[in-house]
Amino acid sequence: MYKFMRIAAALAIASVGTVFASTSVTSAQKSQSPPRSENPQELRNEVGAAVVEFRSGDIKGAETTFRALTQKIEVAPDQLRFVVYFLLAVCEQHDGNAEVAYADMVRAGEAEPIARDRAYWQNLALIAAIINKDDVAAEALLNTITSDPGQASDIDVHLIQQVLLDTRKSDDGGVRRQALLQALWQVRYMPKDVMDIDSMQNFWFQLFEIHADNGENKEAREVLASLDQPWLIIGLQADNRYRSFSDGDSRFNDSTAVNEHYIASCRALATAHPRQIGGVLLVANALMSTDHLPEALALLDEALAKTKVAPTDKPAFDDLNINLRWVLDARARVLARLGRWDDVLASQAMARDSALEHGDDVVSQKINLADIYYRLNRPRDAINEIKDLAASSATTYGLMSVEEVHACAYAQLGDKPKLKKALVLMLLHSDEATEPLYSALECANDKDSLAAAIIARLGNPQTRNDELIHVQNYLPEPHSTDFDAIMAQRLHDVLVRPDVRSAITRYGESKSYSVFAREY
User: Fold this and answer.
1) Do 125 and 232 fall within a single domain?
2) What is the pLDDT of residue 14?
3) How far apart are CA 496 and CA 328, in angstroms?
4) How far, in Å, CA of 317 to CA of 335, rounded?
5) Residues of the chain with pLDDT under 70
6) Please, what is the Cα angle at 7 between 192 and 80, to 5 degrees?
7) SS3 508
8) Which whole-number Å values give the CA distances from 20 to 13, 25, 444, 516, in the listed order?
9) Where are the alpha helices (DSSP H) in 95-168?
10) What whole-number distance in Å separates Cα of residue 373 and Cα of residue 109?
């Protein structure tokens, strides 16, 4: 399931009252045109009752009611028709019928174009993204931002991420992608979850690339000033196209200073959001990435201790339903680097259980636990952990991560037919899930395919910088499992191949950095 899929109903509830309140038929309107229904007030009352049903949370019942109303509203006032089709579409999308929802959302917009507000555009963008109408999703998301810039922070960051990813497939020369990024930059888009604020740096780096590629150096430097993630700065230095932007700037060239600045920036965000455990997680991730492992673990354990002693009606943090699982997940990753593998499994299982308790985003935690199982040479446990993940319950990236687990587990089990089946599927989505694909190819010991994928991505201007970040020399993983050590050696064997080395030096350079490789 797309992470942003369930925002539709809540957003519509916040918006529909205004739209519905404006659907009355005035005396002036009646005198200018014949009534569009024999009893418009009665019909309006029926729609009002359906709206109340929708607001009560009975989405399924409201869907049935709104669908029945579509048989009565062809001669109703335009705004009334908008409300019926709009909320029907929201109900249908919420129930997983995105194709039908899209058609009804379009009908709503056609019924009353002036009623297409921020809620309408965001719901249209969401539905269009789900059914791969990429250009529609991009245009709708742009309208969401520009129709009400002051409320841009309400837009789900995962929807933005998906639409921006999909715009790479458009044949418009990058126009929509650039327009979206510039609109986000102009309104200084700031998501409400502190963890997502950090992820915004990837948006800004994309905008930097566009300005730099267009020769707009002043604008590029303005965006560049907002970046402090070490991996993005490494990408700046590694790419021949962008290295001049870091020349002579100590903020970019002193690896220790880069790491310290990153930690300080994360601490500042955490201080600004004291009620979010996501802020603690942000700092812990920065500490873990820069090899401050004991400090990272202590920070996470302190926050978890606070959650346990806080009263139920006064939790220590406001975002536990979203980020508690990720704190436990990060704790597992710190423990892995400390070599405490029994504790790793326990913490990752707790992360999965926290996700199950809150009923969403279970896919990520199950995959992460399965990854640990096969890293510990427990392939059957890995397969069992993900056996109930349905195709409708993950993004493309998530589904490819499931296939990565399959590939690595089947490789360990020696099941070549199932391994091949997983790899064939993953290769169809190589640019949408590169990291899972690389892991699967390493598990399969398919060095030729891995080398070919790296060379192809280096040759593609859109994926080159990400790939240059991937091929740098990072801190070695401490306390690796036997499996991890084999995979690291296989990757090293590929990166030192003459054809891969030639591609790297053609487009950039590879150096050593005092930070662990970026985690996805």
Assistant:
1) no
2) 53
3) 36
4) 23
5) 1-39, 359-361, 390-394
6) 125
7) strand
8) 11, 12, 58, 54
9) 98-111, 118-130, 134-147, 157-167
10) 49
Q: Is 37 in the same domain as 104?
A: yes
Q: How many CA atoms lie within 13 A of 183 on its CB side?
A: 25
Q: Give 306-366 as a 3 state SS string.
A: HHHHCCCCCCCCCCHHHHHHHHHHHHHHHHHHCCCHHHHHHHHHHHHHHHHHHCCCHHHHH
The predicted structure's pLDDT at residue 478:
95
178 in the same domain as 36 = yes
Q: Give the structural domain span for 71.
A: 7-190
Which residues are registered as beta bridge partners of 473?
512
Query: What backbone torsions phi and psi does residue 319 show, to the nearest 5 degrees?
Result: -115, 25
Same domain? 172 vs 208:
no
Angstrom distance (rounded) from CA 212 to CA 473: 26
3-state secondary structure of 133: coil
Report the C-alpha gap between 495 and 184 in whole angstroms: 37
The model's pTM? 0.87
The per-residue pLDDT for 400 is 92
**Sign (positive or negative) of CA dihedral 415, 416, 419, 425:** negative
Q: What gap in Å lies between CA 422 and CA 410, rounded to an integer?
A: 9
Per-position DSSP letters for 416-469, written without gaps between them: HHHHHHHHHHHHTTTTTSHHHHHHHHHHTT-HHHHHHHHHHHHHSTTTHHHHHH
Percentage of the chain with pLDDT > 90? 76
Residue 492 lies in a domain: no
- Asked if 156 and 165 touch (Cβ cutoff 8 Å), the reply is no
Specify whether 183 is located in the same domain as 199.
no
SS (H, E, C) 357-380: HHCCCHHHHHHHHHHHHHHCCCHH
Per-residue pLDDT reduced to its tens digit, 329-388: 999 999 999 999 999 999 999 999 999 888 666 889 999 999 999 999 999 999 999 998
CATH code for the domain of 36:
1.25.40.10
What pLDDT was estimated at residue 2? 45
**What is the spatial distance between Cα 199 and Cα 192, in angstroms, rounded to a whole number?**
12
Q: What is the CA radius of gyration of the chain?
A: 25
Helix (H) or strand (E) holding 40: helix 40-55
Report the pLDDT value the prediction gives residue 139, as an integer from 0 to 100. Answer: 96
CB atoms within 10 A of CB 25: 18
The predicted pLDDT at position 340 comes to 97
User: Is the separation of the CB atoms in 394 and 363 below 8 Å?
Assistant: yes
Calculate ∠ Cα 111-124-116, nearest 5°. Answer: 40
Tokens 């267009």 sit on residue: 214
Tell me what pLDDT residue 214 has. 94
Q: Coil, strand or helix: which one is 323? A: helix
